[in-house]
Amino acid sequence: MSQVNFSSTSSVSFGELGPTTSLQLMFAKLQLELAGTAKTQAKDKMDAIAKAQDEQKLVSQLLNEARQAKADAKAGVGNDAAKTETFNVPKKDANGKVLVDDKGNIIYEEKPRTETVPKGNNATFMSQEMVDYMELHGLAIDRTANNYSHSADEWDVAITALEGRLEELGTNTQQEMVYIQDYMGQYNSYLQGANTQIANSNQTLTSLARGQ
């Protein structure tokens, strides 16, 4: 994403104009105020994009993990012995939505869940990080056995969900970048308008002082 410079074209700020009855300066103030709004909106969008890009990295990581887990399950990696994992299970409300605290952290069930894959069973476990992400965002996983271990075929559900999520994030990011370009255009337009009105006002005052 291109860098945005919000200061290079500004010669005066909204507050520096002070009170005035000049229509030109009043219009300049309005233009500067609108420029400030566009600037704030653009920065908000940039913050949103930064967060989305961080999430894209996480989803890519989880997708690679899921694909590897599917390959391991298909190959029977580690099935020569029983495998056990313990999970913190996200707590949900009556509608199935994961509960979070005031800082956005997942609230877990009081008692962790211990799962075991028997010897000879070609299945692999999700990581806790994947469990948290899939549950928090309501992404589909195979719940046939109501557990976090999957066979190769069962992994396809999670893989498809993560692929869809990654595509969605990419599409949203592209749209946010379009909005940023629009806000940047508005900012530059309003700022140029304000500077033009200020220059016209100064020219008018100069002409009056000269008696023209």
What does this structure look like?
The protein has helices at residues 23-75, 128-136, 152-209; strands at residues 83-87, 113-117, 124-125, 149-150. It is mainly alpha-helical and 212 residues long. Strands 1-2 form a two-stranded antiparallel sheet. Helix 1 (23-75) runs antiparallel to helix 3. The longest helix has 58 residues, at 152-209. The two termini are 50 Å apart. Mean pLDDT is 87; it is low at 8-20.
Low-pLDDT segments: 8-20
Q: What structural class do you assign from the helix and strand content? A: mainly alpha
Give the end-to-end Cα distance, rounded to a whole number of Å: 50 Å
Q: Give the overall average pLDDT.
A: 87
Compute the number of strand runs: 4
Adjacency order of strands in the biggest sheet: 1-2
Shape, principal axes of CA atoms:
elongated
Quickly count the helices: 3
Instruction: Assign a percent range to the helix content.
Output: 55-70%
Biggest sheet overview: 2 strands, antiparallel
Q: How do the helices and strands follow one another from N- to C-terminus?
A: HEEEHEH
Rg value: 28 Å
Strand content: 5-15%
Task: Tell me the layout of helices and strands.
Blueprint lengths: L22 H53 L7 E5 L25 E5 L6 E2 L2 H9 L12 E2 L1 H58 L3
Antiparallel strand pairs: 1-2, 3-4
Helix pairs in contact: 1-3
